[in-house]
Structures are given as C-alpha cells and as structure tokens.
Amino acid sequence: xxxxxVTTTVNGDEYEFLCEPQQSLVTVLRDExxxxxxxxxxxxGDCGACSxxxxxxxxCSCLVLAVETDGKHIETIEGMGTAExxxxxxxxxxxINGLQCGICTPGILIAAKALLKKNPNPSETEIRFWLAGNLxxxxxxDKIIRSVQAAAExxxxxx
Amino acid sequence: xxxxxxxxxxxxxxxxxxxxTNPVKHDGLDKVLGRAKFGADVYLPGMLYGKIVxxxxxxxxxxxxxxSEAIKIPGVKAVITAADFPELPQGSGWGDMSRTTIAxxxxxxxxxxxxxIAAISEQVAxxxxxxxxxxxxxxxxxxxxxxxxxxxxxxxxEYMRTKGDETAPDVPTNICEKMVSKVGDIDxxxxxxxxxxxxxxxxxxxxxxxIEPQGCxxxxxxxxxxxxxxxxQAPFVYRDxxxxxxxxxxxxxxxxxxxxxxxxxxxxxxYAEPLAILLSKKANAPxxxxxxxxxxxxxxxPVSGTKSRIKMGCKKNGKIVAAEAELYFQTGPYTGSMYxxxxxxxxxxxxxxxxxxxxxxxxxxxPKVNSFRAPCVPQIVFGVEGLxxxxxxxxGMDPIDFRLKNAAIEGHTTIYGDxxxxxxxxxxxxxxxxxxxxxxxxxxxxxxGVSCGFWFxxxxxxxSSMTLAPDGTVTxxxxxxxxxxxxxxxxxxxxEELGIDVDKVRVKMADTNxxxxxxxxxxxxxxxxxxxxxxxxxxxxxAELCRRxxxxxxxxxxxxxxxxxxVKPASSNVGxxxxxxxxxxxxxxxxxxxxxxxxxxxxxxxxxPGFGVHIVDVKVDEGTGRVDVLRWTVVxxxxxxxHPLQVEGQxxxxxxxxMGWALNEEYIYTQEGKLDNPGFLDxxxxxxxxxxxxxxxxxxxxxxxxxFGLRGVGEVPVVPTMAAVGNAITxxxxxxxxxxxxxxxxxxxxxxxxxxxSS
Lengths: 159, 759
Known about the structure:
Oligomer: heterodimer
Helix content of chain B: 25-40%
Number of domains of chain A: 2
Radius of gyration of chain A: 16 Å
Largest sheet of chain A: 5 strands, mixed
Largest interface: A-B, 63 and 59 residues
Number of helices of chain A: 5
Order of helices and strands of chain A: EEHEEEHHHH
CATH class of the largest domain in chain A: Alpha Beta
Distance between the termini of chain B: 69 Å
Strand content of chain B: 15-25%
CATH topology of the largest domain in chain B: Aldehyde Oxidoreductase, domain 4
Structural class of chain B: alpha+beta
CATH architecture of the largest domain in chain B: 2-Layer Sandwich
Structural class of chain A: alpha+beta
C-alpha cells in the first residue's frame, strides 16, 4: 500500500511525514513525529485525551485522518507552555491539583484553552459542558473545574 | 525483619512544617507539559508492534490454531500461542494465571487471547491477525451467577470442586469457593429484634475505567535478560508472576514502571506483558504492545457483579442485634476476586453481637475480574447501608444518630479477629452531622441519602533506599507505584524528618533490579507503608550524619543531636561547635567514609482502619427515571492528611466513580455471551457535566503507630457511594431501588410499580 506525503505545521514547526491513508492524526503525532504528549485513550472520540487544535478548532486527533492535515496548523500540548513560561491553565492545574495521574491532562488543557479563547468568563456549568468530552477518572472533575475558573480569572486580570 | 518502626515517634503536638501543606507535586510539571512518559510513550530502536488475537466466543474448545499463513506475511516477525508458554497444570494458581493470559485448552470469555503477533507496524500486525485460523468447538456458555449455580449449568472446569464446602457433592461445579463467617448466635440475635428488615440486592460489573489503556514494551536480550517497561501498580508482583508463568529467573526480569495513567486496582495484574516478552524473545527485537479501549473492556478486569440477600434486625432503641447475609460474587473464569473482603468489611464499623455470612465465589464466561478500590465491598455495602437506613426510618431515628448508636469504637474486636486501637468512626459521623450540608433542610422535590463505609487499610512488604548527594539534596527510591501523587507525600515526610525543604528531596519509582520486593500499590497501603520505611531511611541517615559530625568535632556520638536539619552539640557542655547542616557534612564525604546512604525493608503492620460518611442530595425526574446528583459531601478520617489537596482528590474522585457505578456503569452481554458495550459511548462513565462539586471534610484521628499518624485514604471513599445515592433516591421516591446500576429504565419501573400500587 503506498503512503501519502503530508506537510503540516505542528506548534509552529513545519513537519513532513508519510502515512497510510487510514492512519489517524494521533497515531502519526505519536508514532511518526514522536510527540507523545497527546494521549490515545479510546480511538472513538469519546474520551478527549487526544484533543488538539487544528486550524484553531478543537478536535479529537483520533477522529482526524493524518492525510487531512496537509497544509493545516496543529497545536498540541507540547506547544502550550514551558517550565519557565507556563500557560496560566498549566500553572493553576499544578497549584490546585487539577491533575492526579495526568493522562487526561494534556487533552483537558488543550480543550480548556480553546474554551477560554471563545469565552473568557465561563460559568461553572459552561466549563462542565465544554469539558464533557474529556473523561477524567481520578479527580471527580472538582479540582479541574476550579483550576479552569482560576486560570480564567488570571487571564482576565492580565488583559 | 521489622514490621513497624520500633518507636513511631508520633507526637500529636509536633510542630510540623511540611506535613499538612500543599506543595506542587514534583511529577506535575512534566504532566502539564506533555513530557511525562506513560506506558505507551516509549519507543526503542528496532521496535516491533504486538497485537493480540482474541476469541469471538464466550466458551469454546480450541481444536487447533493454524498460524502458518500469518507468519508468511511480509513484516510479520513472530506469532505465539499457548504452545509457546511453559506447561502449568490446570487448576493451579500459576496454571490459571497462564490460562487467563492466553487460552490453552479452551477459550473462557469473549475476548480471551488465543494468539499474539509481532510485526514491523501496527497496521501489518492488525492485517496479519485475520490470517490466524482457530478451529473452535463452541460450547454452551454461562454469564450470570444464578445461571452459573443452576443444577444443569454449563461447567467451565470439569475439575472444579467448591473450596471451603465439605458438604458439597463430589461433582463439577462453577462455585469455586465458599466462606462462612460468624459472630455470636444469629437465631437468638434475631429473636431479640423488634424490627427486622430484609432485601435482595444485585450489582453489575463496572470497569475501573482508567483513561490509559495498558501499554508496555518488552525487550528480551540474547543473554536471557528481560527489560520490561509498563504501566503497573505492581512492578515487583509483575516480575514474580512473570517469572513463575514464563519460568524465567526473577533476577533476569527487570520491570520499570512508567507513569501510570490510572489504575484503581485494574493494573495490579498483567495482560499483554507475558505476550510481549515471548514475542520479543521469538522475534529477537523489542516489542511494544498497547491495548485498544475495546480490548480494555473485553479483556481486562472489571469488578465482580454480585447477588445478595441481606437481613438485619434492631431493637426499638436503635441497637442492631443481628445481621445475616448470603453473597454471590462473579470472578470471571478463574478464582481470585478477593470476595472475602466483603464478609470481613460489610458490617464492620458497627458493633454487632450476632452475625452470620455465607459468601460464594462463582466462575462464569466473563473476563477475569480485577481489583477495584476496596475490592468487592462497595457493591455489598450498597445493600447493608440501605437496610440500615430502613431500620432508622422504622424507628423514626435520624440516620446519623442511628449509626452513632451502633458505631464500633476503640477496643472493638472485628469479625476477622482484629482488635482495634484508636479509630475515628464516631468522630467522622459527628463531623458529618455538623456539616452545613447536613444541617440544611432537603429542598422540596429532592432526596437526601447518608451512608458510611469502612476499609481495613493495609501495610505489607515495602522497601526503599535514600541517598544524600554531596550538595545535601536527597534521592529516595521506592518500589511502590505512584498511582495518584504519592511521590510528593513521600518527599514531604522525608523532608519533615530531615528538616529540609521539600524541594531538596526527589522520589524516584525504582525498577525491580534496584530494591527489595514491594507489594502492589493497593488497599490504601502506599503512603502509609512507604512513609514508614522512608522515615526509617531518614533516621538511619541522620544517625550517620551525627556520627560524622561527632567524629569531626572529636566528641562522642551521644554528645551531638540532630535538630531542624542540623547537627549540633547536645548541650553547651559538649563544646562550642558551629552546627553543621546536611550539606556541610555531605560535601565532605570524600574525606570521610564516603556517601551517606540507607536502605530499609519492612513487612509493615499497624495500618489504622479508615471510615467515611457521605451525604448526597439528588433529584429524580419521574418522567424519565434520570437522576441528577446535586450536592455531595464526603467526610473521612485520614489520621493525618500529609497533603490535604491530594487527600481531597482521592475523596472527590472516588465519589464520582461511585456515582457512575450507582447510576450508569454496567457490563451488558448479548445472548451469545458477547460484551455488547465495549466502548465509552455505550459504557457511560460520568463526565464533567454530570457531576457536582464535591465538598470534603477531613477528620484527623491519628494512628499513633505511624510517625505522622496517617491512615490510608484511597479505598474508604468509594465504599459508601452507591448506598448514599441509593438512600437519596429512596428518600426522593419513597421506594427503594435494590439493583445496581440504578439506571433510568429500572427507576421508571419502580416509579410505575409505586404509582400502580398506590392508586
């Protein structure tokens, strides 16, 4: 089976890769580009662990074919912040203990960032419904919601 | 070997500087940056991808397996079947484990592995799996407990006789074990009762639901050494079990645990690992295996589904005088459900004079069950706490007062024979009663439920080592898995003991070559047990620091003391020496006796029992049977919360897991014995919009056997959950649901029956 040649931008860097037509974006991000911060939890778009941004749209990268990303801009957790320059969401998740095992964390951070871009002052209910596509089994969601609320406030104040 | 610190040093009035605060956990940064390495996140040069071929039948004889076509496919490097496994007898513990990993004579559940393939890519492995030809003779299957114990039931194992039942006839059965537990005399107990309540209850299996599917990479080197990287709660247990079923010396297997993306008990036993090792051996290359979510549902352990009949009796004054139960637990195709926890824990927390329990463990054509927080207890407590509420209602007593009236206290001797030291059940109930939640009247149209639970808490084999670097910073190696943040709590306890900043301490999850055996991270044992050995490590290092300082000052060892991170003269009579910090001493170890290190290994005992009380408010939509959980408060005795935010996280996470188990989660089988909902769309776990905020109240009744007084906290908070939701629904509807999950169709039936019988 011949592979497709794809050129895409990930976190501002241009990547070229070959993939089979049925390979999902999450598989290519992880297995070909070795950006393993994006996690695969279900492959059916139900758990949200593989959430990434594609041309500013929040997507489950397990539901996107890698070939579809040609010419697109992808944003993953690896591009969100650095230890010296954490995104306010990353900082608040650490302080408030918004993560326990940490497997859902990259997807939740990406999804929460997308929410705050759309809606800088979401209510608790709005946060809960926005994040309803991201499963977490450890925290019971309480401290995740509080972390997002706190980061939203930080970001509003910083403006 | 020590089982406990000779002197715990527990000091209720201690001025703790670090324990009880909330520093950012050291493993957190990598996790928010996407850098943490979980099971599936490692790639090795020359690595192959492994794929499991699974049975499409619930029960069938394997007549033959033909791998010849598959192995010819370009890119396929190895195929294994049960024939590649060492011979181990049927009905033996290791034989069962080998047969759970891969079917030998028969497949025993839908999804049972029959072969595995290693290939140059996942796609090639997947394509090749279609070319493995298995000739099955399909056998009648059995899924539910009542069918499995029926007289004409299809038998899973011809050799099986009921262990623990001498009266059972010498014929094959699906009941693998029977256990009888008693206290006092049950008949005279019920004779004393003014009120008797009784009901049948049942529960369906739920899955642990970790978001990280199992992932591992095995590298079998040509000199016979196995390197295994995997997400596990039990690296040492994996090593020893792998050694037994693959017949490889334990010293030749090195298990390195990855970051663990959730386990909750479900990663205490292996699945793909033995297959990956044998594939690696055969293919002569590292093999990576990750399970899909469908495989996780079909092939890895859910919890036991149960059936039970429970009966309790009390006096008019509220004193419970008798409790009786008959319990049945699904275990999957082989024994090992840990069903014995239920008789030991179901009534434990109440001081009951007369108890009689019969418990049975039953095999059926389901995946082998695995542990889940407080294994086998919450689904039975669902019934017990329901009946306790019914009794309180009958005599018109407040549900918390009723439980206080029956609460066991220090000195209580349990059904399993332990006599308790200080316990905090009464304090926990009183704290629950004092919460703002409980004092607030229930809103009209809503229902409120209260429930409580107990867990033993565990200790067990625990080993660790501590190394002081020349700059005075500290490395600790532990062999227990960090399942939710124990590393920071361990660092905090060490830092507290050493009198240094917690940031100067790092805890590493060591591989199995580096330390003595550590029991699985389970049973709420890790922070407690590792705390014990790490304090021992610190004390040994402190003793050595004191020796080195005394030596330098030319005084006797007894003439120096360690205080607030410094060695100083014990009194002004010793001499006028400037106190030395840890780094003052460690920076000179090249000139003294070399590096300061310590190791500790204990079979830890002395874990203090834990108790929790949950208060839940719900609203039931009587038109659809949908339940909305509106408010939830968890009150729990932690002994001492080392890192309160982490403790809260345990309580909150358990509450929502229990909410899922209470309202939605269940394994659904087709007539053909196939799992019908092996995905997150049809197996619905709670999402953020289903859950309320969870208020926590941490009670601290210290366990004096631990240096900081702590009790384990992970298991207790799931125990009362389904009963709390059930009692709230009962309060709202005026009728008791007795079947888990309390899903909309079941509640609609109840509501309809209620309306018919009242009209």
